[in-house]
């Protein structure tokens, strides 16, 4: 993932995703950032990139949630219990002060210890359905290659940040959820490849989040909104 900012910065993030790495005690996503001198191209430093990946991805979901969901934000549901789940729990909670937050057991004690001071009530859910029922905002952060979120479980007006990528690209949500939602993404160029399966079920990718932010596109009223985070 290359990036250049005028004469100020020039860099590239190199990232891999190996979903079975947890069996080896390794993170599944591993990133490194190469920073170059923007005037000469000389390599200056190689930085660890996992921290940035957590912060950036969750920050993008915060921005999308702000832009796409105007309703109340009392209850946050997170499917998955890895790096992104934790990053999203922290970032969304920090931005919106949810009253309740449901996510997988593994993270609960740590999050309780770190977040309970602000009054958030974290709960463990034994099923995905229990986790997302009554949620105002849902984040999916897994490698699921079959849907783990079903339309009949969610309430009208919910906003979903679909972050995870399964074997067949983005596959965490069921067909009816897509068909009853407006889908916004971070990059149309990436979506034309990674989300091309949506065309088969009659679902257009409506806009890039940047178009919503700069107000060149407006979101129509719909059952729910999906921010498809592709990470580009
Ligand atoms: N959109 C973006 O910008 C980014 C997306 N990602 C994606 O987000 C996802 C999560 O990444 P990390 O949190 O770093 O990974 P992680 O390995 O730390 O956590 C993955 C979580 O998903 C769960 N999981 C795996 N397969 C599952 C399945 N079939 N059904 C239900 N749960 C399952 C695991 O138990 C674990 O809790 C990955 O798909 C990754 O590729 C990661 C970074 C950036
Ligand atoms: O770092 C990112 O951005 C990633 N996007 C998609 C999957 C793995 C990492």
TrEMBL record:
Its EC number is 1.5.1.1, 1.5.1.25. Pfam families: OCD_Mu_crystall (PF02423). InterPro entries: NAD(P)-bd_dom_sf, ODC_Mu_crystall, ODC_N. One of its GO terms (molecular function) is thiomorpholine-carboxylate dehydrogenase activity. It catalyses: L-pipecolate + NAD(+) = Delta(1)-piperideine-2-carboxylate + NADH + H(+); (R)-lanthionine ketimine + NADPH + 2 H(+) = (3R,5R)-1,4-thiomorpholine-3,5-dicarboxylate + NADP(+); L-proline + NADP(+) = 1-pyrroline-2-carboxylate + NADPH + H(+); L-pipecolate + NADP(+) = Delta(1)-piperideine-2-carboxylate + NADPH + H(+). Homodimer. Binds the thyroid hormone triiodothyronine (T3); T3 binding inhibits enzymatic activity. Belongs to the ornithine cyclodeaminase/mu-crystallin family. This is Ketimine reductase mu-crystallin. It comes from Ranatra chinensis.
